[in-house]
Amino acid sequence: MLATVVLLLHFAAPKDAALAPQMQAELDTLFANSTVQAQLLIDSNAGSLGTPSHVVFVDVNHACMPTLVSTAGSMAHTQRVDGIIHPLVEVDCAKVATYIRSKPDLPRALARILAHELLHYLWQQPGHAHDGLFSESLSRLDLTDTTLRIH
C-alpha cells in the first residue's frame, strides 16, 4: 500500500520556495522504489492538500544562504514528546547552505535532510542506521552526490 505524505513547507525567506521543484525531484528519486510517496507543498498552497495518509509540517528557518554560523550540531530535527515522534520538522537552511557550500546542490541536500527526518517520523525511530540516508551523520558528499540509498 502506498502511503502519501505531504510535507507542508514554510520558508522563512519566501524566495527560497523556488527550491521546492528541485527538492521534489530528489524526493521522487529517493522514494521511487518504496511504499512512500512524498509530496512537497508550500504553505501558501495548503488549500490543495487533498487527503494524504500523513501531513508533516516543515519549518525551514533562516534564509537559504551561507553565513558565518557554525555548522556544528544538527541541521534539522523532528519534534519528540513522551517518546512519540511528531510530524513537525525544523530545518536550519542557513546551516545546510553553509555546510554544503554549493548553491546548485542545495535542493538535493535539503530534500535528503527532509527525507531523513520523514523516516524518523514514519518509522517512529529516534535511532539511526549505520550507513545511507538514515545514518546519524550525513557528510557533504552524502548530501550532494548523485547516488545515495535510504538504508
Tell me what you see in this structure.
It is a single chain. The chain has 151 residues and is α/β, with parallel strands linked by helices. It has one domain: Collagenase (Catalytic Domain). Helix content is 28%, strand content 26%. It has helices spanning 20-30, 93-100, 106-123, 140-144; strands at residues 3-11, 36-42, 54-61, 76-81, 84-92. The chain has a 5-stranded mixed sheet. Helix 1 packs across helix 3 (106-123). The mean pLDDT is 89.
Unreliable sequence segments: none
Helix content: 25-40%
Strand order of the largest sheet: 2-1-3-5-4
Overall 3D form:
globular
CATH overall fold name: Collagenase (Catalytic Domain)
Q: Helix and strand string, N-terminal first?
A: EHEEEEHHH
Counting H and I runs of at least 4 residues, what is the number of helices? 4
SS-derived structural category: alpha/beta
* β-strand number: 5
The named CATH superfamily: Collagenase (Catalytic Domain)
Number of domains: 1
How confident is the prediction overall: mean pLDDT?
A: 89
Please name the CATH architecture.
3-Layer(aba) Sandwich
Global Rg: 14 Å
- CATH classification, class level: Alpha Beta
How is the main sheet built? 5 strands, mixed
What's the N-to-C terminus distance? 20 Å
Question: How are the SSEs ordered, and which strands pair?
Answer:
Layout: E1 3-11, H1 20-30, E2 36-42, E3 54-61, E4 76-81, E5 84-92, H2 93-100, H3 106-123, H4 140-144
Parallel strand pairs: 1-2, 1-3, 3-5
Antiparallel strand pairs: 4-5
Helix pairs in contact: 1-3
